[in-house]
Amino acid sequence: MLFPTQDMESGRSPISNSADFLFSSSYRSLRGKGVFAEINQPVIPGASGGSQLFHESVQGALAKAREAGICNPVVIGAVPFDLSQQSRLFIPADCEFFDRREMVSALEGKCTSVPRVEKMQSVPSEWRFKQSVEQAIANFQHSELRKAVLSRVLNVELADKVSVDEILSRLIVQNPSGYHFRVPIEGDQELIGSSPELLVRKVGSELTSNPLAGSAKRQNDLEKDKAVSESLLTSAKDSYEHKLVIDEIRQVLTPFCSSLDIPAAPALISTPAMWHLSTLIHGQLKDPEISALELACQLHPTPAVCGFPTKDARNLIRLVESFERGVFTGMVGWCDAEGNGEWVVTIRCGTVNGNHVQLFAGAGIVEDSCPESEWLETGAKLGTMLNALGITQQEAL
Predict the structure, then answer these.
(1) Coil, helix or strand for 396?
(2) 197 counts as catalytic
(3) Catalytic residue among 147, 202, 243, 381
(4) Which of 33, 119, 126, 197 is catalytic?
(5) How far apart are CA 229 and CA 267, in angstroms?
(6) Beta-strand relationship, 341-345 and 331-336
(7) What is the mean pLDDT of residues 180-205?
(8) What is the pLDDT of residues 286-342, one digit of tens each?
(9) Beta carbons of 306 and 365 less than 8 angstroms apart
(10) Would the pLDDT of 3 be above 80?
(11) 387: domain CATH number?
(12) pLDDT tens-digit readout, 108-157
């Protein structure tokens, strides 16, 4: 049953009542249809505001959904990188949980058509991106800044209007173990992606987080691929970058947990495109009433997508990045009325609008970074979405 949309402080183009939503993971997957309510309240209104109003808006919308007859309402959507910007959260009119193994199996062999590319442009250019890396490194030498994540956008214009269903289907088949998502952003624009990074999962009093930092491109040759993974695991530069992320997450989560298990050293995980240094964190919450969304807002942005210290890294990003990140490197996921849910980092993603696609990728910069290597890393990370579009990385560079 569909219910009337309740638009909360939107200020944006309306989302269709037939909008589609998807979030899938190995833990739990859900799909939604239609919009009962929109929540566009920023997490932190203004530079020094608190998040209480935001969380009250979410809880109020969930309560109204229950009153309207939705038995198990769920809020799903995206929160931007900058928490002072409007969120894109929704309560779908219809929502169901499903087994994603059946979804992946049903899609295999059915994704054949590939869109034709008219033109592509990176913002910033290769030269400008490398210059930004050099600028960041110079800041490390004369400030308290220790890490900054710099990113770029790849604008892709296709010959015809693209099918979001087809791109998402290819993305799921090519990356069956990722966290898949589809969220309307504004008007006909949609966010889709396959993130490898779990920001937080909350089930009852149990918390799980799986931060990633330190990356290397996968190789087609098995011997070379093994060598790349072993090199990443022993890399001093990548280990340092990873430790900055883990130390910050430990500091944030400790006050909320009665116990917190953080491995002493990272492990390796892989996607079809990348190797990553990974630390799987488990905790027991002191207060099981705190929601997954509240915990995610406490963690975001981690040094994995912003830098360290956060304030200094933000200032540098504002200075050197020539575009607005929006939802990229924000968080995307869901939370139910009981506070359980999953939120992942919004990476390996893109926005689709007609025949225009924007793809995003970033790299963590520390003092030992090499501008050329960081540029190539962003290219490798773009591979996830480029493959879903049928575009080779060589074409995109």
Answers:
(1) helix
(2) yes
(3) 147
(4) 197
(5) 10
(6) antiparallel
(7) 96
(8) 999 999 999 999 999 999 999 999 999 999 999 999 899 999 999 999 999 999 999
(9) no
(10) no
(11) 3.60.120.10
(12) 766 666 778 889 999 999 999 999 999 999 999 889 999 999 999 999 99
Amino acid at 153: V
* pLDDT in the model for residue 8: 38
Residue 9 in this model has a pLDDT that exceeds 80: no
Nearest to 134 by CA among 315, 367, 377, 323: 367
**How many angstroms separate the most distant Cα atoms in the chain?**
60
| Start-to-end C-alpha separation, the chain | 47
In a domain, 253, yes or no: yes
Between 232 and 117, name the one with better pLDDT.
Answer: 232
Contacts of 109 (CB under 8 A, 6+ apart): none
Boundaries of domain holding 66: 6-108+120-396
* Cα gap 183→77, rounded to integer Å: 6
Q: Which two tokens stand for residue 135?
A: 């600028």
In a domain, residue 377? The reply is: yes
pLDDT at 7: 41
Is 70 exceeded by the pLDDT of residue 1?
Answer: no
* Inside any domain, residue 114: no
- Strand pairing class (212-217; 307-308): unpaired
113 domain residue, yes or no: no
Using an 8 Å Cβ cutoff, are 22 and 181 in contact? Answer: yes
Of the candidates 152, 129, 135, the residue with the CA atom closest to the CA atom of residue 373: 129
Bridge partners for 146 per DSSP: none
* Bridge partners for 353 per DSSP: 356
Domain count, the chain: 1
| CA angle, 350 then 330 then 278, to 5° | 95
Q: Tokens for 133?
A: 């890396």
Residue with tokens 């027991």, as numbered in its chain: 284
Say if residue 270's pLDDT is above 90.
yes
Q: 392, exposed or middle or buried, with CB in 10 Å at 0-12, 13-18, 19+?
A: exposed
Q: What is the DSSP pairing of strand 206-210 with strand 281-285?
A: antiparallel
* 367 flagged as catalytic: no
